């Protein structure tokens, strides 16, 4: 594990991604204490105040401090995206592994059905699910998880099938290694690697999908300071006060970039073969 | 590429459409707050609600509604919109046409930009061009469409006033107007595509450049330019076909937001409107048509791939 | 024509003297004031943008402003609403009540025809009102056209309307957005067909209807006024995004915006060739309190909440400064019978004291519900939460989709944000929301003294008497606060400078585009 971390940090993507994520994690954990002002405090004279000494990132239509809202809003944005991806990965992995394990016709039927479900574009599936479950952050999270599951199932299944047939696994069996040693030292890391990479990159999609759902009015509900919602609210004032829109947009982008970089870094670190 | 393989693919499309129809119909059945309520809004009295529900035929058992719907849908009749009273099928097909126009334009723009970008980045691996390309691709996939759309509109429509901010003009009525009105949405839609595909092209090209047969070609003493165009590019670009097909799925999802912002009456916006209004026939027709389109695009990509690459065996 | 005073006209009962001889060019007194040039230029295409789809064009079932606009272009009522909230002749050229105000006689213009060429007679008027009053039609007009008992055709051009109780405002009330006259033949045949086609008597005929994109109408050559409409064609364009809608006007893609938001208003005002329009209105946001349930059954709690609000600041927070502060009565200064009262000042100490007296010395926990449309509802809720904090109100704001809100909270909830358009008369807004028998009695205030005042005003024609009664009613609302009304919105819109004869109507759902013409410098289209 420490070995992996060392290799990860050695890739530029991995190092930058990890650094950004540490900052974001700190914001998620300590956001409310880091916030210079009460994120809900309205200020009549401060409406649409541009960035400056009083409000570093400016103030919004109610005179609320944009930076403080961003810092506090990280909590209702990033953990939701993470949770959605993890839930989707768990569902997908179970289905994918089960399909690989069952094999034959069952495998065929499950995979064809998954292909069919994947024909529904992710955002559309999420939209339909959220409308059914009711608007709100938790439901949006569940909808994203369900929308991600088929893709994860495909990845897990193909990896599981592959690994079982790999020479090094066969060789280990021939060598007479213990079953648990084979599973944990040979198979699992190789099954895990692509899944972990896929999951990491998908978090950045989840961040954007979640923000998009909130933007369309189906995800987090006002007055929450979820970032996608902040962008949606700010759109109508874009000519008056562009900073209310730009600050949360950049926050979303930084988060997405961080997870993308980490995913790429992990890919390189876990696949020394690919180093070039 | 045998006949049975193609038949199998066609059967898969049918199966896909069947699964999606069950999925979509099931979801629309459990949608809370029915169309009658949304239609009447604040004027919904019990009498009025009953009258509207009666008119919309919301009373029958679900399986009967499903069979009736499927029966009509195969003939292209998706019923009347609960919101507008207009036939849904023709409306959605017309909307799909506008969306496809947007999608094809975005893919064309993407190919023109992303492929050269990816190839150059791979050939000049580690150099400035490569770094810049990967920077662009990281930024490109990191901004959701609603952000890029807003920023582009702010810059190109409001500040510079080069392009109209929104709206849709039919290319049959006014070709130049159509191009101008499509420019911003196409630009927005292609950003993520360019970012995604240029990365893919780069890594595929790298794979091929490090492959044995390219090394062999170099060892034979062929000039680098010939190696690149004759051997490397052809093989590197093959997987791009598949990627583009996959991106159609992304595109069809992404255009929901893009059409919403730029007021393009395509299938994405129609679906969004239908979902907000709980207009079940429109949701069903829209979701089914959109998914079927994606399934067909995927199949076409597979066929194209098989056709281009005769070495691949399909059994 | 017999000269009429403005006052009389405003009361809505004056039309008895407003008999117009046939053959006269029919220009209402207000409309002639509106037209800027003596002879408006004929011809041209007017493009008006709206911010949401006009999905329902069935004139009896329209619900939102873009739909009202389309219905107004295609159909006529018995009367229509003038810029000063008075009744003007539309299909009816004159009307008069009996002494008891319970029986009204309306005389139709001669030679009226529908778009399909068939004549429009008293028979069609009777059939239309019968359809409106039938619950199965599901027309919002049913509860908004006044206490109609029956409508009878005396001859082809004379309609008799009998009421359940005396009602002085009937002519204004009949100008209601959904009370449009449609052919009796359609009502007997396929009433729903009007969702797809249009057969009216309006100034324009339907050319094409794409609800989410574009609705096109063209001049009706058989319109009862040969002079109007001035433009040949009107295109109603749907722009779901308000920023984009404003950009379209600035770039000259459109000529007129139906409405805009405060965020865009400044930009529009600065753009060249664009005239920003603004009119004070009675459109308001309020906080409804269930007066029949704790804690709001105690008037001291309601008063305490009202006392926490800085109303001038609220105009800034939710209306972007484009509005007037409210005084907890829905009759804004834009209404005819508005009564001036000193504005309630924020007084947190007094609010705290009242709350303690009511039995909440440690404050009170509440959930304030706001629907997501329009977004200003949440802005108001958040601002109130912050303002009321100091007095001990611990408010949680919950936003929900509009459909869910209508289904579960509206009229049922105990504490939520409401949003209403200006109505034509004080009576209309009172009997829509605040009397015990109101169509939408959401506060369950059920104040008999208030009911009596409103009912009495309905039976009076004397201006001063009515003024006094409505003043008392407003005073009562100000003291009892069934709902906190902190702010009235100004209506905002914009037009290209070459658009002539357009006046922004405070009601918000009246447009009068048949009076609009295009100046010489307008772009040539189609």
TrEMBL record, chain A:
InterPro entries: BP-dependent_transpt_permease, MetI-like, MetI-like_sf, OppC_N. Residues 74-263 form the ABC transmembrane type-1 domain. Pfam families: BPD_transp_1, OppC_N. Keywords: Cell membrane, Membrane, Transmembrane, Transmembrane helix, Transport. PROSITE patterns: ABC_TM1. It is a multi-pass membrane protein. Belongs to the binding-protein-dependent transport system permease family. This is Peptide/nickel transport system permease protein. It comes from Azospirillum rugosum.
UniProtKB/TrEMBL annotation, chain B:
It is a multi-pass membrane protein. The keyword Transcription does not apply. The chain crosses the membrane at residues 12-31, 100-123, 135-157, 177-197, 236-263, 283-308. This is Peptide/nickel transport system permease protein. It is found in: Cell membrane. Keywords: Cell membrane, Membrane, Transmembrane, Transmembrane helix, Transport. Belongs to the binding-protein-dependent transport system permease family. Residues 96-301 form the ABC transmembrane type-1 domain. CDD domains: TM_PBP2. Pfam families: BPD_transp_1, BPD_transp_1_N. InterPro entries: BPD_transp_1_N, MetI-like, MetI-like_sf.
From TrEMBL, chain C:
Residues 1-35 form the signal peptide. Pfam families: SBP_bac_5. Residues 87-427 form the Solute-binding protein family domain. It is found in: Periplasm. This is Peptide/nickel transport system substrate-binding protein. CDD domains: PBP2_NikA_DppA_OppA_like_17. Belongs to the bacterial solute-binding protein 5 family. Keywords: Signal. InterPro entries: Peptide/Ni-bd (IPR030678), SBP_5 (IPR039424), SBP_5_dom (IPR000914), TAT_signal (IPR006311). It comes from Azospirillum rugosum. The keyword Transport does not apply. The keyword Signal applies.
